[in-house]
Specification:
This protein is mostly helical. The protein folds into two domains: 158 residues, no CATH class; 163 residues, no CATH class. It is built from ten helices and no strands. Helix 1 packs antiparallel against helix 3. 41% of the residues are buried.
Length: 323
């Protein structure tokens, strides 16, 4: 049987694939490519023949069938389901190989969490892309990835020789700002605000454009029949987009300090990795605006955000109080 270190490493890679597929689905506006769950217009896979398409549209007359949107949705669902099976297998391996108690606890929690993530996938469709649910679903994907990563860290001992408790406070501050930034990025995407500011570094030619924060950050606004393409006015979308940019400045400054301190305390490789990922992420964010949200750049922006989270968790791991 595969050992838990190797299997958790494979699970991390697979989780990245699921995050990429989720971003693809969202960015091509395919969140309602299948208006039902877990099937697609009542089929196990997406309809392909003319007869199947006619049946599909008779079942859901409010949602005309588009195969180019059904495909991303179905592919994402089945890969996410496969990730759930991987989580089950990881838990079984942990118990059958007599892994340490904390690893068993992690894999058990991971199993229950990924079941909750499946529920959020259902709610995303049934509540017609309600932004707070879609944002929660995206967050769940990042948490799932983080849990697989922590299983790998604990089982591999790859960072066990590094121990820098002096940087605990700074690392927690950086991670907290990153979590806020991930939320703002998710909120930007789910409210279709990625292109609310079409220029850079200004927004609508101003460093403080007209913004409606109250409406932009109303977490429970009505969605109408569905939330496809969003319903917010431009000032509300601008507020969301601009806050994502503004918080990125604070993230960059705090991470620059953390990168310097990690290097100063002898964690040169982790410092370099964190610096490379941070610069890449900032560059991708700028490219999204300048080049009008190219699909593969936007997907990469999601994946590099996940990489930044994992490198940050690595920094948090080496600042633990007890080695």
């Amino acid at each position: 049987m595969m050992n838990i270190k190797n299997f958790s490493f494979f699970a991390i890679f697979f989780a990245f694939v699921v995050i990429a597929l989720g971003a693809w689905t969202r960015l091509v506006d395919a969140g309602l490519g299948c208006p039902d769950w877990p099937g697609c217009y009542g089929f196990v896979f997406f309809p392909t023949s003319g007869e199947e398409i006619a049946i599909a549209e008779s079942r859901f007359p409010m949602f005309p069938y588009e195969i180019d949107k059904a495909i991303p949705e179905v592919v994402h669902r089945y890969f996410a389901a496969a990730l759930g099976l991987i989580a089950i297998a990881l838990m079984v391996i942990a118990y059958r190989t007599g892994a340490a108690k904390h690893i068993k606890s992690l894999t058990t929690f991971l199993f229950f969490f990924i079941c909750l993530q499946g529920l959020f996938g259902y709610l995303t469709v049934s509540l017609k892309l309600l932004p707070i649910v879609v944002t929660g679903h995206l967050f769940g994907g990042f948490i799932t990835l983080s849990l697989f990563f922590y299983v790998f860290l604990h089982s591999s001992g790859i960072l066990s020789k590094l121990h820098i408790p002096q940087l605990r406070g700074l690392t927690l501050t950086a991670l907290a700002l990153l979590i806020i930034q991930i939320f703002l990025g998710a909120w930007t995407s789910t409210n279709y605000a990625s292109l609310a500011c079409a220029d850079f570094p200004t927004c609508h030619g101003s460093y403080w454009p007209n913004m409606d924060f109250k409406e932009g950050f109303n977490l429970f606004h009505e969605v109408g029949p569905n939330y496809l393409y969003g319903q917010l006015e431009n000032d509300a979308r601008t507020a969301i987009h601009y806050m994502h940019r503004l918080n990125a400045i604070f993230v960059a400054l705090v991470y620059a300090l953390l990168i310097y301190k990690l290097f100063q305390f002898g964690a040169g490789q982790l410092s370099a990795a964190l610096g490379i990922v941070l610069i890449t992420q900032i560059s991708l964010g700028i490219m999204n605006v300048v080049f009008v949200l190219p699909l593969y750049v936007a997907i990469a922006h999601n994946l590099v955000a996940a990489m930044l989270l994992l490198t940050s968790l690595s920094a948090l791991y080496i600042t633990r109080e007890h080695n």
